[in-house]
Amino acid sequence: QMQLVESGGGLVQPGGSLRLSCVASGRTWEISTMGWFRQAPGKDRQSVATITWRTAQSSYADSVKGRFTVSRVYAKNTAYLQMNSLKPEDTAVYYCAAKDLGSESYLYWGQGTPVTVSS
Description:
The protein is mostly beta strands. Helices cover 0% and strands 55% of the residues. The chain has strands at 2-7, 10-12, 18-26, 31-39, 46-52, 58-60, 68-73, 78-83, 92-100, 108-109, 113-117. Strands 2, 4, 5, 6, 9, 10 and 11 form a seven-stranded mixed beta sheet that branches. Strands 1-3-8-7 form a four-stranded antiparallel beta sheet, with no helix packed on it. A hairpin with a 6-residue loop joins strand 4 and strand 5. The termini are far apart.
């Protein structure tokens, strides 16, 4: 089993920045990929960014490219999502999730942290 805990959400003005953290515990040696997702009220969950755990290769949704950066500190079992130039449309609950080795799906999810971008 694996547990994920996000933190760092909050209220920020348009143009501002936030950094989300996701700490993994449990069978962390099985992590292959970490992903950040978001879900706005009334909308489907959307993939925001992903990072491969061992090689730190990243990918981004078009809507956040150039503004968001995903990273990880392998030794701390922690992934980050640095969000800059935030827009009102970035308002959502943000979740981190993990795939384990051999899994095609994200099996482990955090509880989510809310981000509100508003003046």
